[in-house]
Amino acid sequence: MRKNGVLVWSKRILIAAVALLLLVIAAAWLYLRGSLAQLEGSRQAVGLETTASVARDEHGVPVISGGSRGDVAYATGFVHAQERFFQMDLLRRVAAGELSELFGERALPLDKSHRLHRFRARAELAIKAMPAADRALLDRYVAGVNDGLNALSAKPFEYALVGLPPRAWSPSDTMLVIWAMYFDLQGSQEPRELARGWFKEHATEEQRAFLAPESTPWDAPLDAQTIAAVDAVIPAAPPAWWGKPKAADAPAPAKVAAAEFVNTVGSNNWAVAGSRTDTGAAIVADDMHLGIQLPNTWYRAALQFPDGKGGQRRMVGVTLPGTPFVVVGSNGHVAWGFTNSYGDYMDFIALETDASKPDQVRTQAGWETPVVHEETILIKGAAAVKLMVRETSLGPIRETQGRSYALHWTAHLPGAVNFNAGKLEMAETLEQALAIAPTLGIPAQNFVGGDDKGNIGWTIAGPLPRRAQAGLASTYPMSVDDAAGVWQGWLSPEEYPKVVNPEHGHLGTANSRQLAGGGAQLIGDGGFDLGARTHQVRDDLAALGPKTDVKKVYAIGLDDRAVFLTTWRERAIAALDAKAVAGNAQRAEALKLLKDSWSGKADVDSVGYRITRGFMYAVYDIMYESANGELAKIDPKSTMASVSSRWPVVLARLLDQQPAAWLPPQYPDWKSLQVAAMDRVIKDLTKDGQPLSAATWGQRNTAASAHPMASAIPVLGKYLKVAPDMLPGDQHMPRVSGPTFGQSERLTVSPGHEEQGIFNMPAGQSGHPLSPYFLDGRTDWVTGRASPLLPGPARHTLTFVK
Q: Domain residues for 107?
């Protein structure tokens, strides 16, 4: 009897436990459901001028319409908040240095680094200086964001995980979202400048000219076929650090061979003139390369509002959650796209001190007392930290390696962020768009545009400093007396370089040097790509022939041919001669795979591609290991690859010409060095007992994007990650792709013919894992399917009324 009683109670306890578990699951499910966006119905909204609506298609892509531009801004803010508020929150906090408030002390180093720039204070000043019309539009967007957030039945699920409520949106937060892009697109210039400072002190002028050339034969400028430059003479001797193993006490540098991408944050864009298209209108294509996570950086939308002339203006493209405008796309008359320009927009100015002038530093303006700002960093689960920021007339002071530098950055100056992007909405010609582009308050970008009349053109969008003296000097840290470090305000739009309607009927940019002529001096070199990708884009455009269409122009972005690495494969094969492979089965297998498992593309099944790529980077590691160890002491992101992205061209010259003085002494000849590099690759690819034949490029280039909170949820976190798709493409080709980096969108459109437009991106519209739009469309991006740009028929409509 007693035994039966125990059994009964055991069953009851088990049933109760299961019931409790089911209740917890049900509660969690209901909570998550409560934070899904409202798709249908009618809402009353304070401040509307007329009405607005959000009509979503089967993929969740909305047409946001309204009786005024302000009403559309309100509805856009509402939608952004309901679908992407946590993403918006992270963007404003990244810019302001406020992540520790959510994530605790682990975010403190990044917050300290970013708080140095005091962008929240700068955002408040920018708000005060805004024209009244811009401020009114911003206020309507902010009202929409806060109403959208408050309309959710439950707050976004991420806040349950961090244990804090979401903070309301403010006008300055929208400006901070734009400043966050300065970190994304120009933040690499800080460690680069420091790396180049070390390089200048540890190499002669002749060695620097050879190791960090100003151009390469791969460059494809917009104003010439090539950049006419004589190859720098290989100096009689290398720097003392050349080819040496790193010092025993040096921190482990980031191995470039293992890195996803180095100095390749950028993008591709190109345009074909109407003289070569099937409709007579220009065709513009754009794919912006960024870190890829869930949700995606961009939110697709079509915005429709009165044009002030009795008609309607429709914008279609991508928006950046946190801001009210279409960033890249078409307004029906003009289409445009951006790539990172990599101009020289940041200087390190070494400050002088004098014991007789305590608390003062000497800047270009003379002796001055830095203004001290006390910044308070709130930290979840710990006491707040006070950070003292000293700011000079040139910018905040950064201390490193016992030196004080003023960090002079375009992002710090008035006008760095504004709402002029809205003016592109009403541009009716390419000429008008090219005049607006230089006034945009964004990190300076390559602007490529085209209009419905067939015109195409390029210029820089965003602020360009007017330097007292142009040249290489500004790419290194400078003294207060260097004229190259003196900025005399911004260039006027009329002074910006432009290329309009080139004779061959196409143009494109991909983060390399844009110009061969004098306009290049106005932009400077802030870390240009070596040019292979731009070169391949240009050749692809020429190959389209006299007449083309949107689909063919779009296909260029899927070109994964390994044009750049072909000669590196030839070097690897030559190194593995009969003597090298004799008695060494692994080298013999590597040679066979280089020959047989090579399609000439970065395709997922190719082992030969992966070996070739690894070989190039292994040579880099051998040559630069010692230098990278020293640079890691200065900044974890400082490397010789950041000194110059053109290093593969330099190493190729050395391997081909084999100057005896540049051969590291631990190798008897250049062939031995290359074989040693190949042995490093083989060892890496066969670690853990894997056969070399299994080391495909797809195994290495496997998608690993995830939501920022994926690691915080045991078991269920896998639902916040993408499938491990093997991705074709790589960095030195149009189809840029990496496990967590690549084409954040692909857009091709002919203005006035948007119904022919093509678009895809690596994730869906929603940041919510229960939404059907969380990963919707990803398959199209992975496969490269040409899916439509315009939203389809409405499946859900949400209306806003007074």
A: 70-178
